[in-house]
Amino acid sequence: MDNSPLQVLTVPTAPYSDQRPGTNGLRKKVYVFQSRRNYLHNFIQSIFSSIDLRDRQGSTVVVGGDGRFFNRTATEVIVQMAAANGVGRMIIGHHGIMSTPAISCVIRKYKAIGGIILTASHNPGGPDGDFGIKFNTANGGPAKEAVTNKIFQISRTIEEFAICPGLQVDLTTLGKQMFDLENKFKPFTVEIVDSVESYANLLRNIFDFAALKELLSGEDHIKIRLDAMHGVVGPYVSRILCEELGCPANSAINCVPLEDFGGQHPDPNLTYAADLVDSMRDGQYDFGAAFDGDGDRNMILGKHGFFLTPPDSVAVIADNIFCIPYFQHTGVRGFARSMPTSAALDRVAKATKIELYETPTGWKFFGNLMDAGRLSLCGEESFGTGGDHIREKDGLWAVLAWLSILAARRQSVEDILKDHWLKYGRNYFTRYDYENVDIDAACEMMEDLEIMIADKSFVKQRFAVEDKIYQVEKADNFEYTDPVDGSISRNQGLRIIFSDGSRIIYRLSGTGSTGATVRIYIDSYEKEQIFEDSQVMLAPLATIALKISQLHHRTGRSGPSVIT
After folding, report:
1. Taking the C-alpha atoms of 9, 12, 18 and 22 in order, what is their torsion angle to the nearest 10 degrees?
2. Where does residue 435 rank: exposed (0-12), middle (13-18), buried (19+ CB within 10 A)?
3. What distances in angstroms separate CA 467 from CA 77, 492, 502, 546, one per listed residue?
4. Cα–Cα dist 59/113, whole Å
5. Do residues 45 and 99 both lie within one domain?
6. 142 and 280 inside one domain
7. In a shared domain, residues 391 and 476
8. Which of 13, 460, 512, 516 could form a disulfide bond with 38, CB atoms 3.0-4.6 angstroms apart?
9. What per-residue confidence (pLDDT) applies to 289?
10. Residue 297 has what pLDDT?
11. What's the pLDDT at 510?
12. CA 492/CA 369 separation, integer angstroms
């Protein structure tokens, strides 16, 4: 056996112009990473080069992914490049798999300089699907814009990358592996860790597991149904909910992570989690939940498939926050929501006199507030909810938060939500997604729309649909000044706000790998008519939103791909 030090190579390369990280990292079709020479290597080198060499030397970096196709190949390359770039230790999830919330937890626990997350979140997997790479910094959260801009600039001018091609890591065996590299005084260490344990231990210190166990497996237990959608959360659900908290094993379905997510779209909404919705309809289950590919998103359902919108979910958690022991100890520093998310949380914040922050879409904005000690609970309408225990949205945390509320109140999801509406009124909310729209057509539509709403004559305009009249009170392109560091984020979404507080919001999403996704968000507050059908109540505003944007005409689409 050859025990000589492993060789570090510097390999010439040529840059690509399309490696700008979006809201959630770099996402492309798998074939892009496979077919373009050094495409993966260029981006990974750009990440390492964005970190000062003095900070890199001997540092710890965490790597994990959602198990999608190309995950293992990318992990092996990242390890070889990390060693060549001076990293001292890599911590990797068993088989290269670790949920996004768990990676955030492990980065913070081991004081790593950051982590590389291999996921395209809720996008499809498999050889014909999507692949993604996201860099999280030392706080455990997504890299800020200054960092992602730096990565992009390096990727545009890169001429070479460093790699240790002879380094072969075994992802299947737990424990430490040591490698001697030429011209390195200390061996390079790879530690393969149990993907669940550190994260499970964090949750044990947040929630009352004894109360949850009584709710889920005690004498008067509820029946639940959890769908991991063949994503990364399966092993976490099996270990934490079933083995530790006592749920029957058949409560959890699709818990084996698959490279193609079983041919399904691992997106926890009413469209793509239809199997869960159908299984809830007959009333045999009291509570249902689905998770996305990398485990940071969640959808919650009550008995008979009663749908809980993400904005309502975070508002109810906020109103019942002391059902969670963690917040009894830490207190509540602030609430936050992304701008497109309905204002349901605002009403709880006002009633409880707790500061409310409205941020652009992207968890990094919440992380900055958390790091400054200003934020405890936050949520996005895109099925993301979380607390300040980590710096990512956290699907399993949200489910345990809701189960904690059920354990304390001993009411159904539906009754808890209806009580909330009676107390605060109801924000009817929906989102229309138009996926894979021609990018040029989408951008032109947004530009023309911005010109229209920026005209002074647009304010005070009245729109009538049936017997409803809406008058524009304010219209702008949302801009956010971070209260912590003063940084300004512009062009975060077009807003039309009406005199009754109703809102129409238009955004181009940055989470897809091909084409553009145009999103229309509609939010309308009602104090009296709180038990009506959401789509019926929002139909007048939806008509106005389409009329103003001429979206169907401009994009050639007759209707949305997904309605949530």
Report:
1. 20
2. middle
3. 62, 32, 16, 18
4. 7
5. yes
6. no
7. no
8. 13
9. 98
10. 96
11. 57
12. 18
Q: Which residues of the chain have pLDDT under 50?
A: 1
CATH of the domain at 331: 3.40.120.10
Q: How many domains in the chain?
A: 3
121 contacts 104 by C-beta, under 8 angstroms: no
Could you count the other beta carbons within 10 Å of the beta carbon of residue 95?
18
> Strands 462-465 and 562-563: what pairing?
unpaired
The answer to whether residues 302 and 281 touch, using CB atoms and an 8 Å cutoff, is no
**Two tokens at 56?**
């890199």
Cα–Cα distances in angstroms (integers) from residue 447 to residues 66, 453, 515, 554, in the given order:
36, 10, 17, 12
Enter the tokens of residue 127: 């050889």
- Residue 317's nearest CA partner among 227, 239, 420 is 420
Q: Which two tokens stand for residue 209?
A: 């597991």
Please report where in the chains the tokens 């009580």 appear, as a residue.
419
* Contact partners, residue 216, CB within 8 Å, separation at least 6: 222, 224, 241, 245, 246, 247, 403
Helix (H, G, I), strand (E, B) or coil at 495: strand
Which residues 6+ apart lie within 8 Å of 189 measured at CB? 88, 89, 90, 176, 177, 178, 179
50 is an active site residue: no
Which amino acid type is present at position 263? G
Length of the chain as a residue count: 564
- Same structural domain, 139 and 216: no
* CB-CB contact of 37 with 146 (8 Å): no
> What pLDDT sits at residue 1?
47
Is there a single domain that holds both residue 359 and residue 484?
Answer: no
Element (H, E) at 224: strand 224-227
Domain that holds residue 289: 199-424
**Whole-angstrom distance, CA of residue 348 vs CA of residue 58:** 46
Task: Output the furthest CA–CA distance in the chain (Å, rounded).
Answer: 83
pTM of the model: 0.95
The pLDDT, as a whole number, for residue 512 is: 54
Which of 378, 404, 424 terminates a domain? The answer is 424
CA-closest candidate to residue 104, choices 203, 191, 19: 203
The radius of gyration of the chain's CA atoms, rounded to the nearest angstrom, is 24
Are 464 and 347 within one domain?
Answer: no
| One domain for residues 345 and 459 | no
Tens digits of per-residue pLDDT, 175-227? 999 999 987 778 999 999 999 999 999 999 999 999 999 999 999 999 999 99
The pLDDT mean for the chain works out to 95
